[in-house]
Amino acid sequence: MQQGKGIKILVVDDEPNILQFLELGLANEGYQVKTAQDGPEAIVLAEQFNPHVVILDVMMPGMDGYEVCQTLKDMKPVAVIMLTAKEEIDDRVKGLTLGADDYMSKPFGFGELLARIQARVRNQFPHLLSEVSVGPFTIDAARKEIKYRDRALDLSPTEFELLKHLVLNHLQVLSKSVILDQVWGYDFGGEENIVEVYIRSLRDKLQDREHRVIRTIRGAGYRVDLL
């Protein structure tokens, strides 16, 4: 998978094991990755590396993550995902108030982190995702085209948005209500059954007769499997 192609990520944490784990995992996804073990090093690297996303630990000695976040946000456009062992609401509010774009508590799943990185890039640097390859899918946002196993699919605008959303969030099970909010919009006044209609159409176009590509997770929603 090359969903990270052309995207730069700076990982900041004072725990070497976490740095190594994230550096290897993110590099394997195609991201360009740099790491820093403290705040001052992170700021110097950010000036040189110009990351799109910074994964930033809160609890570091000396210059903590809150101060680093505020400094980075004052420097240049960057998406900041803060990591912390703390779960108190006040800590989350403080980070978000200082400009953090997202917040994850340790321990966290690598798949969830990938999904959050992609969400931040889509929202703040959409030009970087003009073409994204995820498993057998290639999504060309500029041309509004999706290929499956090198075969271009004949999709309506809504089908394109729905399949793109399912593929880019393939690590998650998406409920009908979430799909409606994120694809049709919060002001959509129709019924949830419209999702089933579009899923059925997508399966036909993917020749997914046995529902192995777009899976129905009973009682929860839908998930794309990268076969």
TrEMBL record:
Residues 8-121 form the Response regulatory domain. The lineage of its organism: Bacteria, Bacillati, Bacillota, Bacilli, Bacillales. This is Response regulator transcription factor. Pfam families: Response_reg (PF00072), Trans_reg_C (PF00486). The keyword Transcription regulation applies. It comes from the Bacteria. Residues 129-226 bind DNA. Residues 129-226 form the OmpR/PhoB-type domain. The modification 4-aspartylphosphate is found at residue 57. The keyword Transcription applies. It comes from Cohnella silvisoli. InterPro entries: CheY-like_superfamily, OmpR/PhoB-type_DNA-bd, Sig_transdc_resp-reg_receiver, WalR-like, WH-like_DNA-bd_sf. Keywords: DNA-binding, Phosphoprotein, Transcription, Transcription regulation, Two-component regulatory system.
